Amino acid sequence: EAGAFCVSDDGLGTASAGVLRNAMLYARSAGLPVILHCEDHTLATGVVHDGVAASLAGLPGSPASAEDAATATALILAAETGAKVHITHVSTALSAALVGFFEDRADVTADTTPHHLTLTEDLVATLDGLYRVNPPLRPDADRLGVERALREGVLDIVATDHAPHSAEEKELPIEESAPGFLGHETAFAALYTELVLDGRLSLARLVEAMSCAPGRWVGTGGSLAVGVPADLALVDLSEEWTVGKGTLVSRSSNSPYLGRTLAGRVVGTIVGGEPVHDRTGARFGLRA
Question: Who wins on pLDDT, 279 or 171?
Answer without folding.
Answer: 171
